[in-house]
Amino acid sequence: MLTTPDGTTYSYADALDESGRIARCLSDLGLGAGDRVTVQVEKSPVVVWLYLGCLRGGFVFHPLNMDYQPDELEFFIGNAKPAAIVCDPAKAATHERLASASGSRVLTLAADGTGTLMTAMREMPPGFQTRERKATDIAVLLYSSGTTGVPKGAKISHANLAANAKTLVNVWGFSAADTLLHALPVYHAHGLFVGLGCVLMSGAAMQFLPRFSAVAVCTALPASTVMMGVPTYYSRLLNKPEFNRDICTAVRVFISGSAPLPETLLQAFQARTGHTILERYGMTETGMNASNPLEGERRPGTVGTALPDVELRVMDEADQPLPAGTVGYLQVRGPNVFSGYWRTDKAARDDFTADGFFRTGDLAAIAADGYVTISGRSRDLIITGGLNVYPRELENALDSLPAVGESAVIGVPHDDFGEAVVAVVVATGTSDTPASAALIEALRPRLAAYKLPKRLIITDALPRNSMGKVQKNRLREQYADLFGAAC
To answer: Which residues of 26-44 are buried (b: 16+ CB within 10 A; e: fewer)?
Structure first.
Protein backbone atom coordinates (compact mmCIF):
# COMPACT_ATOMS: atom_id res chain seq x y z
CA MET A 1 0.00 0.00 0.00
CA LEU A 2 1.23 3.50 -0.88
CA THR A 3 -0.13 6.38 1.21
CA THR A 4 0.25 10.09 0.39
CA PRO A 5 0.26 12.89 2.98
CA ASP A 6 -3.41 13.72 2.28
CA GLY A 7 -4.38 10.17 3.22
CA THR A 8 -4.96 8.84 -0.31
CA THR A 9 -4.01 5.18 -0.54
CA TYR A 10 -3.09 2.92 -3.44
CA SER A 11 -2.84 -0.87 -3.34
CA TYR A 12 -0.50 -3.23 -5.15
CA ALA A 13 -3.47 -4.06 -7.38
CA ASP A 14 -3.71 -0.36 -8.26
CA ALA A 15 -0.01 -0.34 -9.13
CA LEU A 16 -0.51 -3.35 -11.39
CA ASP A 17 -3.48 -1.76 -13.17
CA GLU A 18 -1.97 1.71 -13.58
CA SER A 19 1.42 0.45 -14.74
CA GLY A 20 -0.40 -1.79 -17.23
CA ARG A 21 -2.30 1.18 -18.64
CA ILE A 22 0.93 3.15 -19.05
CA ALA A 23 2.77 0.24 -20.66
CA ARG A 24 -0.09 -0.22 -23.14
CA CYS A 25 -0.34 3.52 -23.78
CA LEU A 26 3.35 3.82 -24.63
CA SER A 27 3.23 0.67 -26.72
CA ASP A 28 0.29 2.03 -28.70
CA LEU A 29 2.30 5.18 -29.37
CA GLY A 30 4.82 2.98 -31.15
CA LEU A 31 7.44 2.39 -28.47
CA GLY A 32 9.21 -0.95 -28.59
CA ALA A 33 11.48 -2.95 -26.32
CA GLY A 34 14.68 -1.07 -25.56
CA ASP A 35 13.30 2.38 -26.40
CA ARG A 36 14.20 5.06 -23.87
CA VAL A 37 11.58 7.05 -21.97
CA THR A 38 13.03 10.26 -20.55
CA VAL A 39 11.16 11.46 -17.45
CA GLN A 40 11.45 14.93 -15.88
CA VAL A 41 8.50 15.35 -13.55
CA GLU A 42 7.71 16.14 -9.95
CA LYS A 43 7.53 13.18 -7.57
CA SER A 44 4.08 11.62 -7.34
CA PRO A 45 2.55 8.13 -7.20
CA VAL A 46 2.08 8.23 -10.98
CA VAL A 47 5.88 8.33 -11.38
CA VAL A 48 5.99 4.94 -9.65
CA TRP A 49 3.38 3.61 -12.08
CA LEU A 50 5.40 5.08 -14.96
CA TYR A 51 8.60 3.42 -13.74
CA LEU A 52 6.84 0.06 -13.40
CA GLY A 53 5.08 0.57 -16.74
CA CYS A 54 8.44 1.05 -18.44
CA LEU A 55 9.82 -2.11 -16.83
CA ARG A 56 6.74 -4.08 -17.88
CA GLY A 57 6.77 -2.71 -21.41
CA GLY A 58 10.47 -3.40 -21.88
CA PHE A 59 11.25 0.32 -22.21
CA VAL A 60 14.30 1.92 -20.63
CA PHE A 61 13.38 4.34 -17.82
CA HIS A 62 15.54 7.50 -17.93
CA PRO A 63 14.78 9.84 -14.99
CA LEU A 64 16.07 13.41 -14.75
CA ASN A 65 16.28 15.93 -11.92
CA MET A 66 13.60 18.62 -12.17
CA ASP A 67 16.28 21.27 -11.63
CA TYR A 68 18.07 20.57 -14.92
CA GLN A 69 18.15 23.59 -17.22
CA PRO A 70 17.79 23.68 -21.04
CA ASP A 71 21.53 23.41 -21.76
CA GLU A 72 21.75 20.33 -19.55
CA LEU A 73 18.59 18.82 -20.98
CA GLU A 74 19.88 19.26 -24.52
CA PHE A 75 22.79 16.95 -23.73
CA PHE A 76 20.66 14.32 -22.02
CA ILE A 77 18.05 14.21 -24.78
CA GLY A 78 20.70 14.18 -27.48
CA ASN A 79 22.65 11.39 -25.82
CA ALA A 80 19.80 9.15 -24.65
CA LYS A 81 17.77 9.66 -27.86
CA PRO A 82 14.45 8.78 -26.20
CA ALA A 83 11.43 7.66 -28.15
CA ALA A 84 9.23 9.47 -25.63
CA ILE A 85 9.67 12.27 -23.12
CA VAL A 86 7.37 12.66 -20.12
CA CYS A 87 7.77 16.09 -18.55
CA ASP A 88 6.08 18.53 -16.21
CA PRO A 89 3.73 20.86 -18.13
CA ALA A 90 5.95 23.78 -17.10
CA LYS A 91 8.84 22.17 -19.01
CA ALA A 92 6.79 21.21 -22.08
CA ALA A 93 7.96 24.06 -24.33
CA THR A 94 11.61 23.27 -23.68
CA HIS A 95 11.12 19.57 -24.31
CA GLU A 96 9.05 20.15 -27.43
CA ARG A 97 11.93 22.17 -28.85
CA LEU A 98 14.47 19.47 -27.95
CA ALA A 99 12.17 16.72 -29.20
CA SER A 100 11.94 18.31 -32.63
CA ALA A 101 15.63 17.51 -33.12
CA SER A 102 15.50 14.02 -31.62
CA GLY A 103 12.15 12.88 -33.01
CA SER A 104 10.80 12.15 -29.54
CA ARG A 105 7.12 12.14 -28.58
CA VAL A 106 6.37 14.55 -25.68
CA LEU A 107 3.76 13.79 -23.01
CA THR A 108 3.07 15.80 -19.88
CA LEU A 109 2.50 14.77 -16.27
CA ALA A 110 1.88 17.22 -13.43
CA ALA A 111 2.33 16.53 -9.72
CA ASP A 112 -1.46 16.51 -9.28
CA GLY A 113 -1.82 13.66 -11.79
CA THR A 114 -3.06 15.73 -14.70
CA GLY A 115 -1.46 15.94 -18.14
CA THR A 116 -1.57 14.38 -21.58
CA LEU A 117 -0.07 11.11 -20.36
CA MET A 118 -2.91 10.69 -17.88
CA THR A 119 -5.50 11.58 -20.51
CA ALA A 120 -4.08 8.99 -22.89
CA MET A 121 -3.66 6.20 -20.34
CA ARG A 122 -7.20 6.57 -18.96
CA GLU A 123 -8.49 5.30 -22.28
CA MET A 124 -6.47 2.11 -21.91
CA PRO A 125 -7.61 -1.14 -20.27
CA PRO A 126 -5.51 -2.14 -17.23
CA GLY A 127 -4.55 -5.56 -18.51
CA PHE A 128 -1.11 -5.80 -20.09
CA GLN A 129 1.03 -8.85 -20.78
CA THR A 130 4.44 -7.92 -19.45
CA ARG A 131 7.07 -8.27 -22.17
CA GLU A 132 9.74 -10.83 -21.54
CA ARG A 133 13.22 -9.35 -21.37
CA LYS A 134 16.64 -10.87 -20.85
CA ALA A 135 18.15 -10.40 -17.42
CA THR A 136 21.01 -8.48 -19.03
CA ASP A 137 18.76 -6.07 -20.95
CA ILE A 138 18.84 -2.44 -19.85
CA ALA A 139 16.04 -1.45 -17.48
CA VAL A 140 17.18 2.02 -16.42
CA LEU A 141 19.53 4.60 -17.88
CA LEU A 142 20.82 6.71 -15.02
CA TYR A 143 23.38 9.41 -15.66
CA SER A 144 26.38 9.94 -13.43
CA SER A 145 28.32 13.13 -14.14
CA GLY A 146 31.73 12.46 -15.64
CA THR A 147 34.93 13.91 -14.24
CA THR A 148 35.34 16.03 -17.38
CA GLY A 149 31.90 17.55 -16.91
CA VAL A 150 30.32 15.24 -19.49
CA PRO A 151 27.63 13.05 -17.87
CA LYS A 152 27.72 9.30 -18.55
CA GLY A 153 24.66 7.07 -18.70
CA ALA A 154 25.02 3.97 -16.55
CA LYS A 155 23.24 1.00 -18.15
CA ILE A 156 21.39 -0.67 -15.25
CA SER A 157 20.00 -4.08 -16.16
CA HIS A 158 16.94 -5.94 -14.88
CA ALA A 159 19.35 -8.41 -13.24
CA ASN A 160 21.21 -5.58 -11.48
CA LEU A 161 17.96 -4.23 -10.01
CA ALA A 162 16.69 -7.64 -8.93
CA ALA A 163 19.96 -8.79 -7.37
CA ASN A 164 20.42 -5.63 -5.33
CA ALA A 165 16.81 -5.44 -4.11
CA LYS A 166 16.78 -9.10 -3.10
CA THR A 167 20.01 -8.70 -1.13
CA LEU A 168 18.89 -5.53 0.64
CA VAL A 169 15.55 -7.03 1.65
CA ASN A 170 17.42 -9.88 3.32
CA VAL A 171 20.21 -7.92 5.02
CA TRP A 172 17.91 -5.13 6.25
CA GLY A 173 15.10 -7.48 7.29
CA PHE A 174 12.34 -6.05 5.11
CA SER A 175 8.95 -7.78 5.19
CA ALA A 176 5.32 -7.13 4.34
CA ALA A 177 4.92 -5.84 7.91
CA ASP A 178 7.16 -2.85 7.19
CA THR A 179 6.21 0.70 6.23
CA LEU A 180 8.96 2.74 4.58
CA LEU A 181 8.93 6.51 4.98
CA HIS A 182 9.89 7.53 1.44
CA ALA A 183 11.04 11.17 1.37
CA LEU A 184 13.76 10.73 -1.27
CA PRO A 185 13.60 11.86 -4.90
CA VAL A 186 12.89 9.15 -7.47
CA TYR A 187 15.26 10.43 -10.17
CA HIS A 188 18.16 9.20 -8.00
CA ALA A 189 19.40 5.66 -7.33
CA HIS A 190 18.74 6.01 -3.59
CA GLY A 191 15.01 6.63 -3.84
CA LEU A 192 14.47 4.65 -7.04
CA PHE A 193 16.52 1.46 -6.64
CA VAL A 194 17.00 1.25 -2.88
CA GLY A 195 13.76 2.64 -1.47
CA LEU A 196 11.27 1.41 -4.07
CA GLY A 197 13.24 -1.80 -4.66
CA CYS A 198 13.05 -2.88 -1.01
CA VAL A 199 9.33 -2.10 -0.80
CA LEU A 200 8.38 -3.88 -4.02
CA MET A 201 10.56 -6.92 -3.37
CA SER A 202 9.18 -7.42 0.16
CA GLY A 203 5.53 -6.38 -0.26
CA ALA A 204 5.99 -3.61 2.31
CA ALA A 205 3.88 -0.46 2.57
CA MET A 206 5.14 3.04 1.93
CA GLN A 207 4.38 6.55 3.16
CA PHE A 208 5.17 8.56 0.06
CA LEU A 209 6.18 12.18 0.65
CA PRO A 210 6.53 14.43 -2.42
CA ARG A 211 9.77 15.83 -0.99
CA PHE A 212 11.68 15.94 2.27
CA SER A 213 10.24 18.20 4.93
CA ALA A 214 11.28 17.82 8.56
CA VAL A 215 7.73 18.68 9.66
CA ALA A 216 6.18 16.11 7.31
CA VAL A 217 8.68 13.45 8.39
CA CYS A 218 7.91 14.07 12.06
CA THR A 219 4.22 13.67 11.27
CA ALA A 220 4.74 10.41 9.37
CA LEU A 221 7.34 8.72 11.59
CA PRO A 222 4.96 7.31 14.23
CA ALA A 223 3.38 5.11 11.52
CA SER A 224 6.68 4.09 9.90
CA THR A 225 9.08 1.24 10.60
CA VAL A 226 11.96 2.26 8.29
CA MET A 227 13.31 5.59 7.10
CA MET A 228 15.94 6.10 4.41
CA GLY A 229 17.65 9.44 3.93
CA VAL A 230 20.80 11.39 3.27
CA PRO A 231 22.75 12.87 6.21
CA THR A 232 21.21 16.29 5.54
CA TYR A 233 17.77 14.87 6.33
CA TYR A 234 18.91 13.64 9.71
CA SER A 235 20.71 16.87 10.62
CA ARG A 236 17.58 18.86 9.78
CA LEU A 237 15.42 16.56 11.89
CA LEU A 238 17.69 17.22 14.87
CA ASN A 239 16.96 20.94 14.46
CA LYS A 240 13.28 20.26 15.20
CA PRO A 241 12.40 20.22 18.93
CA GLU A 242 9.44 17.93 18.20
CA PHE A 243 11.79 15.29 16.80
CA ASN A 244 12.34 13.05 19.80
CA ARG A 245 12.45 9.47 21.00
CA ASP A 246 8.67 9.23 21.35
CA ILE A 247 7.84 9.70 17.66
CA CYS A 248 10.49 7.11 16.70
CA THR A 249 8.96 4.31 18.75
CA ALA A 250 7.68 2.33 15.75
CA VAL A 251 10.86 2.76 13.69
CA ARG A 252 13.11 -0.30 13.65
CA VAL A 253 15.94 1.21 11.55
CA PHE A 254 17.10 4.53 10.11
CA ILE A 255 19.32 4.10 7.04
CA SER A 256 21.69 6.72 5.61
CA GLY A 257 23.57 6.95 2.34
CA SER A 258 24.46 9.00 -0.76
CA ALA A 259 26.96 11.05 1.29
CA PRO A 260 29.32 10.41 4.23
CA LEU A 261 27.60 10.38 7.62
CA PRO A 262 29.58 12.54 10.11
CA GLU A 263 30.30 10.67 13.34
CA THR A 264 29.14 13.66 15.39
CA LEU A 265 25.77 13.56 13.60
CA LEU A 266 25.45 9.82 14.25
CA GLN A 267 26.19 10.39 17.95
CA ALA A 268 23.78 13.31 18.28
CA PHE A 269 21.04 11.31 16.58
CA GLN A 270 21.67 8.35 18.87
CA ALA A 271 21.52 10.56 21.95
CA ARG A 272 18.22 12.15 20.84
CA THR A 273 16.40 9.02 19.63
CA GLY A 274 18.17 5.96 20.97
CA HIS A 275 18.70 4.79 17.35
CA THR A 276 22.08 4.22 15.71
CA ILE A 277 21.77 5.17 12.06
CA LEU A 278 22.74 2.35 9.71
CA GLU A 279 25.20 3.70 7.13
CA ARG A 280 25.72 1.95 3.81
CA TYR A 281 27.67 2.57 0.61
CA GLY A 282 26.56 2.52 -2.99
CA MET A 283 26.91 4.20 -6.36
CA THR A 284 24.77 4.97 -9.38
CA GLU A 285 26.66 2.34 -11.35
CA THR A 286 26.42 -0.42 -8.76
CA GLY A 287 23.48 0.08 -6.46
CA MET A 288 24.49 -0.92 -2.95
CA ASN A 289 27.91 -2.46 -2.26
CA ALA A 290 28.35 -2.47 1.51
CA SER A 291 26.31 -1.97 4.66
CA ASN A 292 26.65 -1.85 8.38
CA PRO A 293 24.69 -4.73 9.90
CA LEU A 294 21.08 -4.73 10.98
CA GLU A 295 22.16 -6.83 13.96
CA GLY A 296 25.70 -6.30 15.20
CA GLU A 297 28.19 -3.47 15.35
CA ARG A 298 27.38 -0.39 13.32
CA ARG A 299 30.86 1.01 13.37
CA PRO A 300 31.03 4.82 13.23
CA GLY A 301 33.02 6.20 10.33
CA THR A 302 32.58 3.06 8.25
CA VAL A 303 30.05 1.82 5.69
CA GLY A 304 30.10 -1.70 7.09
CA THR A 305 31.13 -4.79 5.17
CA ALA A 306 30.58 -6.01 1.61
CA LEU A 307 27.06 -7.23 0.90
CA PRO A 308 26.51 -10.92 0.12
CA ASP A 309 27.62 -11.76 -3.46
CA VAL A 310 29.53 -8.46 -3.66
CA GLU A 311 33.33 -8.45 -3.74
CA LEU A 312 35.23 -5.37 -2.60
CA ARG A 313 38.99 -4.91 -2.77
CA VAL A 314 41.51 -2.11 -2.35
CA MET A 315 44.28 -1.87 -4.92
CA ASP A 316 47.22 0.37 -5.75
CA GLU A 317 47.64 2.31 -8.99
CA ALA A 318 49.01 -0.82 -10.70
CA ASP A 319 45.95 -2.88 -9.67
CA GLN A 320 47.93 -4.78 -7.07
CA PRO A 321 46.25 -5.66 -3.74
CA LEU A 322 47.06 -3.61 -0.67
CA PRO A 323 47.29 -4.91 2.92
CA ALA A 324 44.27 -4.67 5.22
CA GLY A 325 43.79 -1.19 6.61
CA THR A 326 45.76 0.51 3.82
CA VAL A 327 44.09 3.27 1.85
CA GLY A 328 43.93 2.66 -1.88
CA TYR A 329 41.57 2.51 -4.83
CA LEU A 330 38.30 0.72 -4.13
CA GLN A 331 37.06 -1.78 -6.72
CA VAL A 332 33.83 -3.81 -6.78
CA ARG A 333 32.50 -6.88 -8.58
CA GLY A 334 29.11 -8.55 -8.30
CA PRO A 335 25.65 -9.06 -9.83
CA ASN A 336 24.75 -5.51 -8.81
CA VAL A 337 27.42 -3.90 -11.01
CA PHE A 338 26.36 -2.30 -14.29
CA SER A 339 27.73 -3.46 -17.64
CA GLY A 340 29.06 -0.12 -18.83
CA TYR A 341 28.16 3.37 -19.98
CA TRP A 342 25.72 4.29 -22.74
CA ARG A 343 27.47 5.15 -26.02
CA THR A 344 30.91 5.30 -24.33
CA ASP A 345 32.60 1.94 -24.80
CA LYS A 346 36.06 3.39 -24.15
CA ALA A 347 34.97 4.72 -20.77
CA ALA A 348 33.68 1.26 -19.85
CA ARG A 349 36.96 -0.36 -20.81
CA ASP A 350 38.88 2.18 -18.73
CA ASP A 351 36.60 1.75 -15.73
CA PHE A 352 36.81 -2.06 -15.49
CA THR A 353 39.83 -4.18 -14.66
CA ALA A 354 40.88 -7.19 -16.72
CA ASP A 355 39.19 -9.51 -14.21
CA GLY A 356 35.90 -7.61 -14.19
CA PHE A 357 36.13 -5.30 -11.18
CA PHE A 358 34.66 -1.81 -11.51
CA ARG A 359 36.96 1.04 -10.51
CA THR A 360 34.75 3.10 -8.22
CA GLY A 361 37.03 6.14 -8.13
CA ASP A 362 36.78 6.13 -4.34
CA LEU A 363 39.69 5.88 -1.95
CA ALA A 364 39.08 3.43 0.87
CA ALA A 365 40.58 1.03 3.37
CA ILE A 366 39.21 -2.38 4.31
CA ALA A 367 39.99 -3.55 7.85
CA ALA A 368 41.03 -7.13 8.59
CA ASP A 369 37.44 -7.86 9.74
CA GLY A 370 35.98 -6.50 6.50
CA TYR A 371 34.69 -3.10 7.62
CA VAL A 372 35.14 -0.51 4.87
CA THR A 373 36.14 3.10 5.47
CA ILE A 374 35.70 5.53 2.58
CA SER A 375 38.44 8.13 2.95
CA GLY A 376 38.01 10.26 -0.13
CA ARG A 377 37.12 10.46 -3.77
CA SER A 378 39.91 10.32 -6.25
CA ARG A 379 37.74 12.01 -8.86
CA ASP A 380 37.01 15.15 -6.83
CA LEU A 381 33.32 14.38 -6.60
CA ILE A 382 31.41 16.71 -4.28
CA ILE A 383 28.34 15.29 -2.54
CA THR A 384 26.08 18.07 -1.31
CA GLY A 385 22.79 17.15 0.35
CA GLY A 386 23.12 13.66 -1.12
CA LEU A 387 23.46 14.93 -4.72
CA ASN A 388 26.59 14.61 -6.83
CA VAL A 389 28.42 17.65 -8.18
CA TYR A 390 31.47 17.19 -10.37
CA PRO A 391 33.74 20.26 -10.22
CA ARG A 392 34.75 20.15 -13.87
CA GLU A 393 31.22 20.82 -15.09
CA LEU A 394 30.93 23.93 -12.93
CA GLU A 395 34.46 25.04 -13.82
CA ASN A 396 33.62 24.78 -17.52
CA ALA A 397 30.57 26.97 -16.99
CA LEU A 398 32.51 29.54 -14.95
CA ASP A 399 35.43 29.69 -17.36
CA SER A 400 33.03 30.47 -20.21
CA LEU A 401 32.01 33.74 -18.51
CA PRO A 402 33.83 36.79 -19.94
CA ALA A 403 34.89 38.07 -16.50
CA VAL A 404 36.47 34.75 -15.41
CA GLY A 405 40.04 33.88 -16.30
CA GLU A 406 40.15 30.52 -14.52
CA SER A 407 38.41 28.73 -11.71
CA ALA A 408 38.70 25.83 -9.28
CA VAL A 409 35.70 24.21 -7.61
CA ILE A 410 35.99 22.31 -4.34
CA GLY A 411 33.79 20.84 -1.64
CA VAL A 412 34.21 21.98 1.97
CA PRO A 413 32.52 20.77 5.18
CA HIS A 414 29.01 22.09 5.81
CA ASP A 415 26.90 21.28 8.86
CA ASP A 416 23.69 20.86 6.86
CA PHE A 417 24.63 19.68 3.37
CA GLY A 418 27.64 17.59 4.40
CA GLU A 419 29.68 19.39 1.77
CA ALA A 420 29.15 22.81 0.23
CA VAL A 421 30.21 23.74 -3.29
CA VAL A 422 32.81 26.53 -3.26
CA ALA A 423 34.22 28.18 -6.38
CA VAL A 424 37.57 29.98 -6.31
CA VAL A 425 37.86 32.32 -9.28
CA VAL A 426 40.59 34.41 -10.88
CA ALA A 427 39.18 37.37 -12.82
CA THR A 428 40.36 38.18 -16.33
CA GLY A 429 41.64 41.59 -15.30
CA THR A 430 40.20 43.15 -18.45
CA SER A 431 37.46 44.94 -16.54
CA ASP A 432 36.43 45.80 -13.01
CA THR A 433 36.51 42.88 -10.60
CA PRO A 434 33.15 41.12 -10.95
CA ALA A 435 30.84 40.68 -7.99
CA SER A 436 30.60 37.14 -6.64
CA ALA A 437 26.83 37.27 -6.55
CA ALA A 438 26.70 38.41 -10.18
CA LEU A 439 28.80 35.44 -11.31
CA ILE A 440 26.56 33.00 -9.46
CA GLU A 441 23.48 34.60 -11.01
CA ALA A 442 25.06 34.23 -14.46
CA LEU A 443 25.28 30.48 -13.85
CA ARG A 444 21.72 30.06 -12.61
CA PRO A 445 20.01 29.64 -16.01
CA ARG A 446 22.61 27.07 -17.06
CA LEU A 447 22.93 24.72 -14.10
CA ALA A 448 20.70 22.98 -11.58
CA ALA A 449 20.42 24.93 -8.34
CA TYR A 450 22.21 22.30 -6.25
CA LYS A 451 25.32 22.65 -8.45
CA LEU A 452 25.64 26.41 -7.87
CA PRO A 453 28.38 27.57 -5.48
CA LYS A 454 27.30 28.27 -1.93
CA ARG A 455 30.22 30.69 -1.89
CA LEU A 456 32.28 32.18 -4.70
CA ILE A 457 35.69 33.58 -3.79
CA ILE A 458 37.66 35.89 -6.09
CA THR A 459 41.42 35.62 -5.74
CA ASP A 460 44.58 36.77 -7.53
CA ALA A 461 45.92 33.31 -8.39
CA LEU A 462 45.26 29.62 -7.85
CA PRO A 463 47.91 27.51 -6.08
CA ARG A 464 49.77 25.17 -8.46
CA ASN A 465 52.42 22.49 -8.20
CA SER A 466 55.62 22.28 -10.25
CA MET A 467 53.70 20.67 -13.11
CA GLY A 468 51.24 23.55 -13.23
CA LYS A 469 48.33 21.54 -11.81
CA VAL A 470 45.96 23.40 -9.50
CA GLN A 471 46.45 22.13 -5.94
CA LYS A 472 42.88 21.67 -4.82
CA ASN A 473 44.06 20.04 -1.60
CA ARG A 474 45.53 23.40 -0.56
CA LEU A 475 42.29 25.16 -1.40
CA ARG A 476 40.32 22.64 0.65
CA GLU A 477 42.63 23.23 3.61
CA GLN A 478 42.46 27.00 3.20
CA TYR A 479 38.67 27.10 3.13
CA ALA A 480 37.88 24.12 5.34
CA ASP A 481 36.33 26.33 8.04
CA LEU A 482 34.45 28.62 5.66
CA PHE A 483 31.09 27.44 7.00
CA GLY A 484 32.26 26.47 10.47
CA ALA A 485 32.88 22.96 11.78
CA ALA A 486 30.69 20.28 10.26
CA CYS A 487 28.24 18.67 12.69
So the answer is: bbeeebeeebbbbbbbbbb
